[in-house]
Amino acid sequence: MNHAAAPTMGVWSSGDIALTEAQMTGSAAFVTGPWRYERLDGVGHWMQLEAPAEVNRLLLDFLPR
User: Fold this and answer.
1) Count: domains in the chain
2) Across residues 35-48, what is the average pLDDT?
C-alpha cells in the first residue's frame, strides 16, 4: 500500500512537563511529508487551553484554505 505524504506541524510549549522539545523535534524523522515545527513559550502541556489564540493562529496559518 502506498501512503501519501501529509504535511505535519508539531507544536511544543516550553512549559510542557510530559513531552521534551527533543522528542517533538525528533518526530520529524517519522514524517515523510513536509515538517513544520513551532515552539510556544510560557505555556504548559495544554497549550490549546492556555494560549488558544496563538494555537489557532498557527493552525489557521498551517491548514490549506
Assistant:
1) 1
2) 97
This prediction has a pTM of 0.87
Find the domain containing 56 and state its range.
Answer: 9-20+39-65
State residue 65's pLDDT score: 85
Cβ contacts of 2 within 8 Å, gap of 6 or more:
none
- Does residue 3 sit within a domain? no
Question: If you average pLDDT over residues 8-18, what whole number do you get?
Answer: 97
H or E segment to which residue 58 belongs: helix 52-62
User: Is 33 contained in some domain?
Assistant: no
Asked if residues 30 and 5 have their Cβ atoms less than 8 Å apart, the reply is no
Let me know the angle formed at the C-alpha of 28 by 63 and 49, rounded to the nearest 5 degrees.
50
- What is d(CA 65, CA 33) in angstroms, rounded to the nearest whole number? 18
